[in-house]
Amino acid sequence: MRVLARKIKPANTPGKMKKLTALILFVFASLSVFAQKQDKLLVQFTGIIHNHDNAGSVVPYVNIVNVSDNGLVNQSNYKGYFSFVVHEQDTILFSCVGFSTIKVIIPEHVPSQSYTVQIAMKPQITDLPPFRVFPWATTEEFTRDFLSMKLADDDLAIARKNLSHNSIVLMEQTLGRDGAEINSAKNFHNNIVNSHYYTNPLFNPFAWGNLINSISAGDKSRGVNGASGSSSASAATSGN
Length: 240
Hints:
By secondary structure, this protein is an alpha+beta fold. The protein has six helices and seven strands.
């Protein structure tokens, strides 16, 4: 009996072996990093952020990024206070608009697993390049608007316009009175009111009666004086 043996060709495994080796290395690297992270102790990181140029002025709402912990983001409150948990040797970045970024590294062997700091952020002044805004999209639009633009009046034209009859009438209707006009109007009103207390004697019947009585009394007095004068003249003639 003849046994036929078939030769098995070796499979092409270099590519698969490379992938498997890379996967194993990645797993070992991840485990080592995780083990190192687990070996680091937890620390309560607490502090206050204030202005470097003014220690009494706090910097509120500062972004705090833990670069060593996958970019975990925290933020200080409106008083510049922050408190969160980190690991030893973690790198912390403090950033805020208008201030320079500050990097803090948590030290090792922190006593009582608590680390307190005062962060002084220095103001950062950034000079931006000038930017000019034009309301015209094209040169043709600018030329059209420039030619149709109405120029402003000069000082003489403005003065003539303000002293015109229509402008003066409008100001009289809208502007309030000054002190001299108010006093003049008040005096005129008082004179009219006070004139009502004095009546015209021509319209008073009692005044007419007094006038007639005065005339009559004057006539009588003139008659008596005339009679006495005639008797005196007769006596002088008879004496002669």
